[in-house]
Amino acid sequence: MAATPTVRQRRLGAELRRLRERLGPTATADEIATRLGWSPSKLSRIENARIGVRVSDVRLLLELYEVDEGHMGEILALAQAATQRGWWDGYRHTLPARFAAYVALEDEASEAFLYSTYSVPALLQTREYALSVIETGRTVTLSTPREMKRTLDVRMRRQELLRRRQPLDYSAVIDESVLLRLVGDSGIMRRQLKSLVALAELPNVNLFVQRLSIHREPLMGESFTLLKFDPAYDVQFPDVAYVDSFQLQVDVQDDTITDRYGRAWEALRRASLSSEESKIYISRIAHEIWRDQAS
Asked: In the listed set 81, 105, 137, which residue is the last one of a domain according to the structure?
């Protein structure tokens, strides 16, 4: 499997395409490639982040596009950063391509807004809870013990986003059924819920419990994540909506669709307990529902 493109590569490709299209309809990717003596499809693949690109080639493009010196410096810095591979590339033989692409996006996002209907969100799972979740799918995925371990390792590595020097701002609406659904055993559940309360104390983590007894709008059955990105190297990257189901993993960058997911998340949050109420409620379930297992 080829290396999964990073957000830096995707930013670079999108900006190069924007600069080319600014020249007018005659500046097609094939035409520009021909003028530079490249193969006809090379520039198209660069713009779509399907292949890596040398900084020297980016400079040739920027000079041809007559980009001003200030912006050229930003784009060349981005091109240099885009040559670096992400940590997840070491797991490319384990991760499905679609999910690897999501991990790359998640790693460079500034904000994440998640709605979870069936399990504790991956970035908030304890190791034992995560292993129990992974094991439940083993009969379907036919994963080997080694593959399961690598999947678990990736999940734990992703959680570093919440505690790094510039952490991901993470907000999750969690359906109450997630807190009541047995995963592993009661001890695992109690420790997982206590961990959620501790994580919710982090300044960059906000959790909202959606009670089963409260009317909700919209009524949604699918879990989803909306990722947002700060501008970098003078280039903006669009919001991404990610929907993960049993057979399908899709990320969407269409502004109309991501805006709908954003409005849906806000509506779900408004129909949920506040962050302080949620911490109290999670703690209550941990002690009242899963109290029969010593911590």
From this structure: 81
